[in-house]
Amino acid sequence: MVLRERISEHTYVFRSSMYAKVNAGLITTPEGCILIDTLPYPEETQEIASFVRRRLRSEVKYIILTHSHADHVYGAYLFPDADVIGHLYSRKLLLTQTRPALVKARQTHPSLADVRLRLPAILMEKEAAVRLGGATLMMRHAPGHAPDVISVYYKEEKVLFASDAMMSIPYFIYGDINDLRRTLRELAEVSPLEDLVQGHGDVLLRGEVKTTIDIHLAYLDKVEAHVNEVIAKGLGKEALLSLDVEECGISRIALEGLANRLHQENLISLYTRKVKRLKQARAKQRQAAA
Ligand SMILES: [Zn+2]
Predict the structure, then answer these.
(1) How remote is the CA of residue 280 from the centroid of ligand 1, in Å?
(2) Residues 174-210 pLDDT 10s
(3) Which CATH number fits domain 3-221: 3.20.20.140, 3.60.15.10, 3.40.50.10070, 1.10.3300.10?
(4) How far away, in angstroms, is 67 Cα from ligand 1 center?
(5) CA of 233 to the centre of ligand 1 (A)
(6) Range(s) for CATH 3.60.15.10 in the chain?
(7) Residue 264, CA atoms < 13 Å, CB-side half-sphere
(8) How far is CA 19 from CA 141, 171, 260, in A?
(9) How far is the CA of 200 from the centre of ligand 1 (A)?
(10) Which of 73, 145, 224, 263 is the most exposed place for a label (fewest CB within 10 A)?
């Protein structure tokens, strides 16, 4: 069962109970609905489709895909008449990464058999807006979690959909830690704001947004400082895991216990990239000296 929450007059949030508390947003207008992301499993997105059809007696006109990750895009095929909006990079990543991963995932999840990826036909780069039935949705590139993430601000009801730039734990292995810092600072500036819908996890109320963003920025600093220390001391990857997720201000049980694993992946990915960059720099120095 999908959890449905009405967070303002025309805004609903649907949360997956099957995978990592993924959130999809629904904006209702007299001229139809705008769906922001879908849920990981078709049976869950089907619940959104039935709600729109049976309860609202409406239809989805646009789907905004906030990035190309499987858990947000698999359900788009259930709305064949909706136009799909997304970032330029999403289109590319859907083709090169999400599609081959789907072929594999079908082998272990028979319920994905019918899933067909829908590619965004309306593409944006830095900023764009969509207007429908009195609702204005302002989209903005928000990289860091992944290169193609976009955030969506519903101006009339002051709701910010931050996608995976905000989840119960910052997660940047597909993106870049510095991009994520920049994006978090930009999100902190969005105003006026009533609610922030994270890509995964609870909806944040106005008063919680700034503190949560500060916690996330502090988390990133702690993770990076630890990785730098491990590298400076010449220690191996094992030493990375001595930094506990709770020491970095993030609950271990966040996202149904996934938090600790995501934290370890953050550490390893940052370490691997930094070590690689160091090696490249040393090789260059040697070349220059020779
Ligand atoms: Zn993601």
Answers:
(1) 29
(2) 999 999 999 999 999 999 999 999 999 999 999 999 9
(3) 3.60.15.10
(4) 7
(5) 33
(6) 3-221
(7) 10
(8) 25, 16, 16
(9) 9
(10) 224
